Amino acid sequence: MPEPPGPLATFSPRNHPCILIGIGAGMIPEPLPSWLQDIVARVSAVSVRVTEESQTEPYLFGAQPANHVLINEYEPGQGIMPHEDGPLYHPIIATVSLGGHTVLRFSPKTQHPRPATEAGADDDGAPPDPVDPLCPAQTPFEPFGLLLEPNSLVLVHGLLYQHLHCIEELTTDTLDASIINASQLQQPFVPGEQRVRETRVSLTIRRVPKVAKLNINRLLGKQR
Ligand SMILES: O=C(O)CCC(=O)C(=O)O
Ligand SMILES: [Fe+2]
């Protein structure tokens, strides 16, 4: 692995120290380490067309380069629990996979808004759950997986952003019909194939819109 990244890159999960520089909804700016700059610039310049009907956007994050990279290292058998990435990074996240492959699994976030009583609260006194207009309960889908190959880029955008993703804690992935990007792979699989995991490093590259006007080194009393 290269040198640990500067503070705007955050190191995770579990067995790594986590440098998380954030205050409230903002982040304290710090230049990206040089070894990341080229990757971030190339990913930021990816042009995308989200649907057949939509126009091709010349840049991934709307002409602004990405400014945040989360680095995760996974040994075989490690994964990440089902979660959403939250509003801070909306509407698009881009993940580069290095080293080994993995399977990123998506499942619907079922929403069951609790019925309100006449007083506007339910039995336990809490207000009813708000319904997320981007994720109505009527949009369930069959859970599916994406095989993320080494040196690949995956983009999560739109409705999918509002649902759950995870990586199962496996040492070997069974590649079957639940994997929906089978036709787009460098290394295709035969259904039922077992692919053994190796150490994988993921770079999750995002544009954080709200960056604090603070300098971490000045804050820590260091000159730079
Ligand atoms: O490592 C990955 O590909 C996914 C990581 C992830 O979902 C996250 O850090 O929020
Ligand atoms: Fe995530």
TrEMBL record:
Annotated localization? Nucleus
- Which residues does the annotated region (Disordered) include? 106-132
User: Which parts form a coiled-coil structure per UniProt?
Assistant: none
Keyword check for Nucleotide-binding, yes or no. no
InterPro entries annotated for this entry? AlkB-like, ALKBH6, Oxoglu/Fe-dep_dioxygenase_dom
Output the Gene Ontology cellular-component terms. Answer: nucleus
Keywords (A to Z) from UniProt? Dioxygenase, Iron, Metal-binding, Nucleus, Oxidoreductase
Quote the SUPFAM superfamilies the UniProt record gives. Clavaminate synthase-like
Q: Which domain of life is it from?
A: Eukaryota
Listed Pfam families: 2OG-FeII_Oxy_2
- Per the record's keyword annotation, is Metal-binding included, yes or no? yes
According to the record, the signal peptide region is: none
Q: Where is the Fe2OG dioxygenase domain?
A: 65-209
| GO MF annotations, alphabetized | dioxygenase activity; metal ion binding
User: Quick one: where is this thing mainly located?
Assistant: nucleus
- Would you identify the family this protein belongs to, as annotated? Belongs to the alkB family.
* Name of the protein described by the UniProt record: Fe2OG dioxygenase domain-containing protein
Organism field: Monosiga brevicollis
